[in-house]
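Here is the promised in-class demo. Please do not try to memorize the tokens; focus on the logic of going from shape to residues.
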């Protein structure tokens, strides 16, 4: 009788690519190496890479400071120009106001002259006096000022000489009579004062100068001789 060979279970074939995939330990080590490499700083292998970055930051900071200084200078210049503009506008406004008031008051000067003559002759009475005083008050509020007095030195910038004479009692050209008073608004002269002037007598001035020289000479002689002789 034929003896049968005992049977055995066949094992499945191991996949041929097992060797190429590697063992689980090898896979874990590779993942850990990759993680370590990814977490390392980018420039760790270059010790001098930080210095160029600092230089670039300093350069950018200098540029920002330069731009800030330029903008600050522009702002200061604009502020100064604005202040000058405001002062110029204010000055022009005052000038325009003075010119407008001067043009108006110039038309009233003949009336003011009539009021002055009426006052000098004692004719400023009754209702006419009230009207005249109200007018003078109104023009004074507008800044009108009267000037010109007898005895003051002649000034060609504010006086207009209509008459000329010589007088022995004056030492310089003097206003001896006010024919028409002058008027001004602030520093602006609307009309110069029309006056009669007198100058010193030519001979009187020369004689006076000679007398002063003689007096000085006599004084010097007395001082040199030790004083005047006693009788």
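The designed amino acids, position by position:
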């Amino acid at each position: 009788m034929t003896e049968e060979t005992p049977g055995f279970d066949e094992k499945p074939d191991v996949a041929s690519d097992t060797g190429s995939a590697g063992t689980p330990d090898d896979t874990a080590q590779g993942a850990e190496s990759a993680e370590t490499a990814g977490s390392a700083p980018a420039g760790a292998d270059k010790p001098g890479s930080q210095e160029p970055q600092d230089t670039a930051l300093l350069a950018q900071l200098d540029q920002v400071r330069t731009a800030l200084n330029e903008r600050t200078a522009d702002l200061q210049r604009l502020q100064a120009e604005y202040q000058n503009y405001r002062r110029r506008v204010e000055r022009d406004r005052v000038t325009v106001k003075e010119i407008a008031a001067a043009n108006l008051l110039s038309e009233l000067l003949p009336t003011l002259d009539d009021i002055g003559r009426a006052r000098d002759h004692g004719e400023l009475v009754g209702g006419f006096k009230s009207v005249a005083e109200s007018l003078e008050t109104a023009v004074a509020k507008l800044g009108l000022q009267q000037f010109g007095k007898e005895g003051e030195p002649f000034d060609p910038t504010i006086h207009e000489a209509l008459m000329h004479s010589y007088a022995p009692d004056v030492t310089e050209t003097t206003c001896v009579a006010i024919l028409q008073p002058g008027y001004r608004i602030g520093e602006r002269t609307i009309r110069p004062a029309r006056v009669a002037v007198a100058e010193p007598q030519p001979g009187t001035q020369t004689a006076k100068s000679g007398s002063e020289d003689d007096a000085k000479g006599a004084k010097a002689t007395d001082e040199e001789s030790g004083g005047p002789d006693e009788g």
